[in-house]
Amino acid sequence: MNKKQLIMEKSIELFANQGIKKTSVQQITEYCGISKGAFYLSFKSKDELILAIIDHFMQQITADIDHVVRTNHTKDILYQIFHKIFKAFLQHRDLAKFLMIEQNHSLNKELLTRMQYYHKIADKTFLEMLERIYGESINEIKYDLIYAIKGLINGYADIVIFNNGKLDLDLIATSLVEKVDILAKNITTPFITLETGEMFQDFLIEEISKEKLISMIDTSLKEIEESIEKESLVTLKQHLIEPSYNRAIINGLIENIRNHPDCKWLSYLLRRYIR
Amino acid sequence: MNKKQLIMEKSIELFANQGIKKTSVQQITEYCGISKGAFYLSFKSKDELILAIIDHFMQQITADIDHVVRTNHTKDILYQIFHKIFKAFLQHRDLAKFLMIEQNHSLNKELLTRMQYYHKIADKTFLEMLERIYGESINEIKYDLIYAIKGLINGYADIVIFNNGKLDLDLIATSLVEKVDILAKNITTPFITLETGEMFQDFLIEEISKEKLISMIDTSLKEIEESIEKESLVTLKQHLIEPSYNRAIINGLIENIRNHPDCKWLSYLLRRYIR
DNA sequence: TATACTAATGACTGTTCAGTCAGTTTGTCA
DNA sequence: TGACAAACTGACTGAACAGTCATTAGTATA
């Protein structure tokens, strides 16, 4: 297995059980069965490892949610999103635990900005979804709804993550959809009004440059083996340098790489760039 | 000023800004203008300081909420509680920030148990309140409602704590009351049903012993100066050793000490013991 | 087989920091 | 005034730990 991935997986386990502070690099390398030096071949520092872990998880979830919102056009979106989120929490329980336990805003400024960035994207996606589902009718309360939704997710995430039994994902999603629906149709006194909402969130997510994308493609090409994915990446790279295919083809190529774990984030960024 | 209090206040500031890990005992003592040795006269260890800070805050809020629920008998309770909670968050922004940033489950098992204890009390209090307001009608969804309420508080706490402008406490409370009311009247598909709810929460909050209470009274007596409070404490102590007054008198005595910051928790425990 | 190159090792270094303790100051009371 | 105690000081200690680097193992190429 890829050494970087090995280290990330094993350290997530340790972090989730003991916390970051109490997990030494030594311990991580011992648990991985590698030497301390090998660790520093993969990551420049312990902090970089932590950043990488958080990035990885946030990117997966962000790309997944975006995909659901983009491909669903019925009222079903909300259900799909909740289902996806809680399924991810369940599947990566260790990671989610780690994220919940150590909301390391404190670790460094870097992380704080990073998290704000993902939150902004999430807010924007939720907003798009709410507008799609409910149209104009919720205009006055849309920002308020976003905070309510995030709060609800948080509250129920606790149950999902810290309860070890099996959970009815369908029920939890259905139940939350009902709550949001009830709120959307009945709220008359939002705390976050239109003005304050727009003040809170300036939706300027800076666009990624073509060069950055190409270098990301190059990195991915080195890491993956599957031929279809490789070919798709090469073709996409060519298209970036010199546009030569129509939207449908590009869409298909992006779809080809969407489910490869190492390309999920890249596919999300590509899609946003093309649009 | 009391040295213990000085250390707590100053370190909360530092913790909120830099995180626990990056704040050394050295730095705390320098910021307080005392020596390192003096720190260890007040606290046995850095961990003990952290525990003390968290205990202090949780005890204040727990006692306050309990008081609201106990003394209000109209639908107003919900509003009062939200108002109280968010006012506390605002007033002790540093502390709340510190608590949100480092959900130190990880620090040690001690803290985890401690937090679970306060959560249990909060759950019980919320439950009592919901039953008082809505009666039998919400029986099927009461546990679900508790999680929804906690989630909403969490979501909106973020805004209150990390936004530096002034906030309309009345509006936020009103807005949340509306949300809970809407949910209480419309939810039909709870995620946490009656059975699972009772499974989650076993409401066995162990009772405190008479001896413990008396020793707590003794400690408080040493610390406070106000004569009314002192007299009340002495009388309450006598009553504990040999019951000699009726409920009304005891109630009044407890009320006398309720608003002294060093006695809030004691008054809460006394009230629970007497009942 | 020799050579060149990369991957991996783990003993070592420098630093940070919680906690200690021998000694000093301040306060109290006879 | 002096005896005694309580409060306070800060230089010091030892442990933990992130990060380095000289050396070795492994592998590809000529």
Automatic annotation (TrEMBL), chains A, B:
Record has Translocase as a keyword: no
DNA-binding segment(s): 24-43
UniProt entry keywords in alphabetical sequence: DNA-binding, Repressor
One Pfam family hit: TetR_N
Residue stretches making up the HTH tetR-type domain: 1-61
InterPro entries (UniProt xref): Homeodomain-like_sf, HTH-type_Tx_Regulator, HTH_TetR
PROSITE patterns: HTH_TETR_2 (PS50977)
Entry protein name: TetR/AcrR family transcriptional regulator
Organism: Ornithinibacillus massiliensis
Higher taxonomy: Bacteria, Bacillati, Bacillota, Bacilli, Bacillales
